[in-house]
Design goal:
The complex is a heterodimer.
Chain A (H helix, E strand, L loop, with lengths): L23 H10 L6 H19 L2 H12 L9
Chain B lengths: L23 E7 L3 H12 L4 E4 L13 E3 H10 L2 H7 L1 E3 L1 E6 L2 E7 L11 E3 L2 H12 L6 E4 L3 E8 L2 E8 L2 E12 L6 H5 L4 E17 L7 E5 L8 E7 L3 E9 L4 H4 L2 H12 L4 E16 L3 E2 L2 E3 L5 E2 L7 H20 L7 H27 L5 H13 L3 H6 L38 E3 L5 E3 L9 E5 L11 E4 L16 H6 L2 E5 L5 E6 L7 H11 L6 H11 L1
Parallel strand pairs in B: 1-2, 1-11, 2-8, 5-13, 11-18, 22-23
Antiparallel strand pairs in B: 3-7, 4-7, 5-6, 9-10, 10-11, 12-15, 12-16, 13-14, 14-15, 16-19, 17-18, 20-21, 22-24, 24-25
Helix pairs in contact in B: 1-4, 1-8, 2-3, 2-8, 8-9
The chains are: A mainly alpha, B alpha+beta.
Amino acid sequence: MTAQCTEPAAEQALVTDDRLGSEADTVYAALVAAHEGLSAHDGQRLNVRLVLLLANHIGSAAVIHEALVLARTGLEGEQRR
Amino acid sequence: MTSYSYTEYAMTLAPELSGATPGIYPVVIVGAGPIGLSAAIDLALHGVPSVVLDENNVVSVGSRAICWAKRSLEIFDRLGVAQRMLDKGVIWKVGRVYHRDREIHAFDLLPEEGHRFPAFVNLQQYYVEQYLIERCWEFPDLIDLRFLNQVTAVLPKPGAVTVRVDTPDGDYTCSAHYVLACDGARSTVRSLLGLGMLGETFEDRFLIADIEMTADFPSERRFWFEPSFHPGQSALLHKQPENIYRIDLQLGANADPERETMPEAVVPRIEKVVQGRPFALDWVSVYSFQCRRLERFLHGRVLFVGDSAHVVSPFGARGGNGGIHDVDNLCWKLAAVLQGSAGPALLESYNDERIHGADENILQSARTTRFMSPHAGAERLFRDETLALARDLPFARGLMNPGRLSTPCSLAGFPLQTPAETAVPARMAPGQPCLDAPVTGADGRPGWLLAHLGGTFRLLAVNQPAPSLPGLPVVTVGAGSDGAGSALGDPAAWVEQRYGDGLFLIRPDQHVAAHWPAHGPPASPAIVAAAWRRALGFMASKAAALVETWEYV
């Protein structure tokens, strides 16, 4: 029998080059439109659901971590304990 | 009061109180709970005598730890009590998760066949302690159980530790080369040495109740987020033998523990859970949880084992099981130290390996507790929306955290293990606990692989010959035996499938110390001997040098 070996995960990195191209305006408009008619709280709920769905779609803790670091830049806020 | 009928164990007069001077004991164990008793038995199996001191004379009041995981059962089997636990306990492997009143997820904790022990056995702690005490009695020359013996002082000295003990018949002092503090979350030894715990404390309070009730509830772990019978909080239901059910109800941060333990508060809550079925309260407690540990588990000759060293929230059954893993890891090392076969780094490896295990348990149970009691704001939002998505989308069920149940940790990367030079299956990489598998003995009788491993170092050879080293017993499975007909059979090829062809050095606690796959370079006797020496703690280590200095200066 041949031993099974765990494959090292493929190198993945966050893509920050433009991937939406000619669809950029459509996607942007859709993100904004999705919030129409929602209260601020429900808008937050929508964003959280979207983050969870897309995080799963990305499927890489390393890429998500990179995105989180980038997204938090400039939002240091209070010193966390 | 519980329906279990408690035996008050007889107190025997300590020899110190009848004028004897027993000299320095090899080991004194403080605490006769599951951890202290298991340690006494494990040491006895290695031929090491111990004195066990407990301030009480009955087994656990209340069922407390009830979920015993597969790996713990395998350890309990090595200690000689697992069959009784299996015969008495409730066997289960399926967990169900509900949101509001709808089932949204079910998980199987042991989906594959070919294991002797199930994923879990639910059995009240008082039965486990009773079985362990009765097993201790089978070693009358090696285990000295002293009930109603309360430790009042622990004085570490060079070469030994002096312990002061209070009993109804008077006080005495005794000395031991090593003291094992197995005295639980509120460890007396820990406070006597002035040691603090580091970590996180949770504000939420939980009601834990055992009830006696006739019901046809399944033998499964059932967990609810925000059920209609307990709105806005979480609930957990476990089945135990003799019609006892364990109910955990989250009460929030503002609950008053004294009021919440009164029957007039408890009964209406339980009535809603069991929906009108008649029941009797067996045991009730209100807890808040901590996920904390000592910075070190070794303090000179005082060693902390189980809850005295680390505490976790109960969602995941990582308290009692984690403590049994500590015992498994420690006792062979301590025996080797006392018997002079250990290298200088061996005892220190208990500290490193079990802090690693404790940290894993703390991380997992803290994450579960946070998921159950999210902070207001973004954390609450993420929790609630995860639950909302989990109703319809499979991916979100993986994000939902109703408890990640106890599994043994890998000891990969720690100094006792020899890293594999060739790629090996992850499940059997150095550091992993051995997997069980059905085998047939030389006489053709069916049995289990783990019964042939552990206790001492073993060389396991799967479908290949093994080099011969004096003092290292060989367990051969399948082809490649020495022709003496001593090989174990692998009738359904479970061993071959789980281990792959190759040679394995197995530690006394059934963890893989070294793995030489058949497709890699052959392991010469010198290579095996080097791995064996390494696993006994013979290697240059700064940490080991520090311990030496600490102990003998």
